[in-house]
Amino acid sequence: MEREIWENFWQYANDPQCGKVVKQIDQYGDKLFADPIVLDRPSGTVIIYPQRTNNILEQFFRRLRRDYRQRTGNNKMRKVLQAMLADTPLIKNLGNPAYLKILLGGKRSLEELFAEIEINGGAAEKEGEVDPDNVLRSFRSLIKIPELPALISGLATTMQMAFC
């Protein structure tokens, strides 16, 4: 086995392409590789080797660009990216089961989560209840009149009688 390793080593050492790669690694090695991060946990020591590039974002934009090219046939998407909403990556994360599990926080679906938010946040109003802040200022005094529905009904009846 050891002999096989040395034979492969000499084969690659004489290859000009491998020589170029080794030269690049020697020249830019400090920028290419990061020191490992050692974490002491109750279960034991864990070593993490961090990535030097943000592959997740690169993959996201590559997928986004490919989808755009397939949909429109246009390769330039500068204007589309500038007009894109800032939260688009968050929406794309809904396809990630781990992210969705964290987001839902024990709920079964997004509908159930939003229903809970509306109830707790006060967005779901009781039926028949009017929020005075959402009514025009000139009508706020009318809303406070307790016999308003009876007055309007009586007025409508009077107007109907006048036309007959």
What does this protein structure show overall?
The chain is mostly helical. The chain has three domains: 2-48, no CATH class; 53-84, no CATH class; 86-124, no CATH class. Helices cover 62% and strands 6% of the residues. The chain has helices at residues 2-13, 16-32, 55-72, 78-83, 88-92, 97-104, 110-121, 137-143, 148-163, and strands spanning 37-41, 44-48. The protein has a two-stranded antiparallel sheet with strand order 1-2. The protein starts with a helix and ends with a helix. The model has no long low-confidence stretch (mean pLDDT 75).
Short description:
With 164 residues, this protein is mainly α. The chain contains nine helices and two strands; from the N terminus they run ααββααααααα.
Features:
164 residues; mainly alpha; 3 domains; 6% strand; elongated
Question: What count of structural domains?
Answer: 3
Mean pLDDT comes to 75
Radius of gyration: 33 Å
Total strand count, please? 2
Poorly predicted runs of 5 or more residues: none
What's the arrangement of strands in the largest beta sheet? 1-2
Number of separate helices: 9
Secondary-structure-based class equals mainly alpha
What gross morphology would you assign?
elongated
Q: Whole-Å distance between the termini?
A: 109 Å
Strand content: 5-15%
Residue share in helix: 55-70%
H and E string: HHEEHHHHHHH
Task: Tell me the major beta sheet.
Answer: 2 strands, antiparallel
